[in-house]
């Protein structure tokens, strides 16, 4: 399986990142998710899951920052469209990102249970986006955590593909 995420001059485009303006942000955070093209999806794919994490956040905050977790996207997709996280155009189960954790304390589900884009405070960061092709729908409810996704995916991953995108400081 392969995935492809658009970039501009090697960076994630501004409307998906810290530089987002207008409707592409909510309370100062970028909230418009980028499109992801899916190719060579294995036969038998029932659903997809998506994760986006920032390991470059470890020196800043002490842990990997979770930007996006979603599960149970339909297995017949050839693209996860732009703004799928908020638009409602694609059915999915919404996981929590790091904004919803106890250290940040954000409570707005529009922020905590959807995509929040790169906002690196110190330098450009590398963001790891992974799409998993799964053989079944996962027993998860909105608001699940990344560790719950990993536990439920165990033994059900047909394929996975990754792409690192760079978020501008």
From TrEMBL:
A Pfam family found in this protein is PBP
InterPro entries from the xrefs?
PEBP, PEBP-like_sf, YbhB_YbcL/LppC-like
CDD domains, per database record: PEBP_bact_arch
- From which domain of life does this come? Bacteria
Indicate what this protein is called per its UniProt record: Phospholipid-binding protein
